[in-house]
Amino acid sequence: MPTERNANGFVAGESFLERNHLLLLSTQVGITRLWDQSVCIDLDNETLVDRLADLPKRGGKTARRYTADSSYECADGRRGVCESKPRAFLDQHAEKHALAGKVLDKYGRSFITLTEEHFSPVFISNLENLLKATSEGQRRHAEMAIEKLHQALGQQERWLTVELKQSASLSNADIFFGLAHGVLRADLRQSLFNDNSWVEASHGSLDHLIFEAL
Predict the structure, then answer these.
(1) Closest Cα to residue 214, out of 62, 48, 54, 21?
(2) Taking a C-beta distance cutoff of 8 angstroms, is the pair 30, 24 a contact?
(3) Average pLDDT, the chain
(4) pLDDT score for 122
(5) Which of 11, 45, 84, 199: disulfide with 36, CB 3.0–4.6 Å?
C-alpha cells in the first residue's frame, strides 16, 4: 500500500485486515513514520530484537517469538506497535498477546490491536479516499476544492453533504479534499453521502482524523 510515511513509499501486509490497519495508520493525524513487521519480540527473555535471525537459541530451539504487524512514530517522538488479528485469534492466544504487550510497555512502546470489528466497508472506503486526497499529485485539485469550500462555509458552517455539493458544484473527491486538509470535519466511520449525512467547518482542526488512541 502506498504511503508517504515510509521511506520506501509503501508498506505491505499479509492479509486484508493488515492492509486496513496500515491504511488507518497512513491517514491518522499525528503519525509521521510507519513500518511493516519491524519489531520482533523474544517472549522467553522478554526483549526486543531487530530480526528473526537475532533470536537466541536454547538446546537448538529458537526462542518463542511474536512479530508485530507494524510500528509507527508520532510527531512528538512517541513510538508504538500495531497488531491486527481476528477477534477469534485474540481469544485463543490471549496469554501470548498479553505478554507481548508487557514487553513492549517495558520498552516504552504503546501496543494497540485492531480486529475486524474496527473496519466496516464504509470506514475502509473513507480511509482509501482520504489517502488519495493527501497525495502530492492531487495538490492543485485540492487547492481548487478548498477555495470553493471556503466560499460555501462563509454562508453557513454546517451542511447536508448533498446540499453542499450542489450549492458549490463539488464532487465527492472535493469533499474528501476538505476533510483531509482541515476545512471540513465529519464522522468518517459513517457514510458521508447519504441524504441525511452532514459535514461542517473544521477551522483547521484535524481531530476528526484521530481514529484510535495511540
Answers:
(1) 21
(2) no
(3) 91
(4) 97
(5) 11
**pLDDT tens digits, residue range 105-158?**
999 999 999 999 989 999 999 999 999 999 888 999 999 999 999 999 999 999
End-to-end CA distance of the chain: 21
C-alpha cell at 189: 466511520
Q: At a CB cut-off of 8 Å and minimum separation 6, what does 152 contact?
A: 159, 164, 167, 168, 170
pLDDT (0 to 100) of residue 185: 98
| Residue 32 backbone phi and psi in degrees, to 5 | -110, -30
pLDDT exceeds cutoff 90 at 59? no
Percent of the chain topping pLDDT 70: 96
Q: Are 114 and 21 in contact (CB under 8 A)?
A: yes
Q: What is the 3-state secondary structure (H, E, C) of the chain?
A: CECCCCCCCECCCCCHHHHHHHHHHHHCCCEEEEEECCCEEECCCCEEECCHHHCCEECCEECCEEECCEEEEECCCCEEEEEECCHHHHHHCHHHHHHHHHHHHHCCCEEEEECHHHCCHHHHHHHHHHHHHCCHHHHHHHHHHHHHHHHHHCCCCEEEHHHHHHHHCCCHHHHHHHHHCCCEECCCCCCCCCCCCEEEECCCCCHHHCCCCC
